[in-house]
Amino acid sequence: MLGRWLPEQRLFLKSDNSTRFARLSPLTQFAALGGVAAVFGWGLIATSILAMDAVGAQGQRLQAREASDAFEERLADLSTERDSRAAEAMAAQERFNTALDQVSRMQSQLLESEARRHELETGLGAVQANLQTAIKERDLAQGKETGKNKLTAAQSTELQTALDIVSDELKSTTADRDTARVKADEAERQVAAMTIERDQIVSRNDEILTQLEDAVTISVKPLDEMFRNVGMNPDDVLKTIRRGYAGEGGPLNPVSYSSSGDAEISQGEAKAKEIMITLDKMNSYRIAVEKMPLAMPVKSAFRYTSPFGRRWGRAHEGIDMAAPVGTPIYATGEGVVIHAGRAGAYGNLIKIQHEMGVETRYGHLSKIKVKVGQKVSRGSLIGAMGNTGRSTGPHLHYEVRMNGRAMNPMTFIKAAQNVF
């Protein structure tokens, strides 16, 4: 039945002196066709899987970037609201201090009024005692000379006039005291209302600070895990970045301290300080991320042809990405070109030195578009894919080395997908 579909074929090989032929049986033809179909099917399935992975990875990166942008926008809104609440709290504190000053002045006026009233009451008692004594003397002097009686009447009139004046002053002082007391009570009510308002603002500020603290803490965790995944100590990364970004300056002004001794405000300031420390840590991480080789060197369609690790009994210290000759190759991070030329089995090779002891290598290139000493940024075009050096076909050999030790480049690429 196989011979009916695939009859026996003969392949003649003729030379000047002789003629030979090779016999291709139906089974041999079937095996060859099956092998070709299997290779074609495997290539089709592998290409489909890689295309789906690339589309899925791009979608995940877009979703992660959208989530990061939304988080940054939310963080900016929370910062604006925090500043607004802080301004309201400061204004409420100023109104509270003004009200306290008013209460203090009114209490002082009230005390002065009380002292004046006490003095007038004392004077009034003395005048009344003198008046009673004069009345008694007048009663005892009745029947004496007319001139003496007239003198006693004049004294009585004078004393009565003095008593009226003292009584009027006492009434005026009492009225002033009552007015001052009413104003003091109203000021105390205002102070109580402002205290409640200030407590509400402080509570709201504390809530906002808590949200900010949670947000920045959540944002730092992926960055911290990313550096650990690529074999770097996050503390060493932060120290390196802070040494490179340690400039200070500007005029120094005296610091003003609050005399209110408000424990809640002190707690808010401490929490805000912790948030600033975490934000500084996150900013340092972001600076380090910008300097790390975390991008893809090939942005066009390609196929992974060899992973990192042992291959044919020898160490393969990078990954291979196959695509047509001339496919653009891009720098995966900010750095300085330290080699651009031939390098043995690498063929045309570019080496880029990044910060924190990281180096990337791009081998088997067909074209080199950078020079030694040139500074490049992430995404800069540096060359084109080729087939130079020890290579079985056009591809890019991409390496990442840390302090001279080869690292798996896929670790850096996957770590970046969790952040960007």
Short structural summary:
With 420 residues, the protein is an alpha+beta fold. The chain contains 6 helices and 14 strands. The protein has 2 domains: 54-240 and 264-291, Helix Hairpins, CATH 1.10.287; 296-308 and 317-409, Glucose Permease (Domain IIA) (Distorted Sandwich), CATH 2.70.70.
Characteristics of this structure?
single chain; 420 residues; alpha+beta; Helix Hairpins; Glucose Permease (Domain IIA); ten-stranded antiparallel beta sheet; two-stranded antiparallel ribbon; 6 helices; 17% strand
Please render the helix and strand layout as text.
Layout: H1 2-5, E1 9-14, E2 19-24, H2 26-140, H3 146-229, H4 234-244, H5 263-291, E3 303-306, E4 309-311, E5 314-316, E6 319-322, E7 328-330, E8 335-342, E9 348-353, E10 358-368, E11 375-376, E12 381-385, E13 395-402, E14 405-407, H6 409-417
Antiparallel strand pairs: 1-2, 3-6, 4-5, 6-13, 7-12, 8-9, 8-11, 9-10, 10-12, 10-13, 13-14
Helix pairs in contact: 2-3, 3-5, 3-6, 4-5
Task: Work out the strand percent.
Answer: 15-25%
Would you tell me the structural class of the helices and strands?
Answer: alpha+beta
CATH topology call of the largest domain: Helix Hairpins
- Structurally, the number of domains stands at 2
Shape: rod-shaped
Mean pLDDT: 77
- Summarize the main sheet: 10 strands, antiparallel
Radius of gyration (CA) equals 47 Å
The total beta strand count reads: 14
Amino- and carboxy-terminal Cα gap:
60 Å
CATH classification class of the largest domain: Mainly Alpha
Segments where pLDDT lies below 50 for 5+ residues?
255-261
Number of continuous helical runs: 6
From N to C, what is the helix and strand string?
HEEHHHHEEEEEEEEEEEEH
Named CATH architecture of the largest domain: Orthogonal Bundle
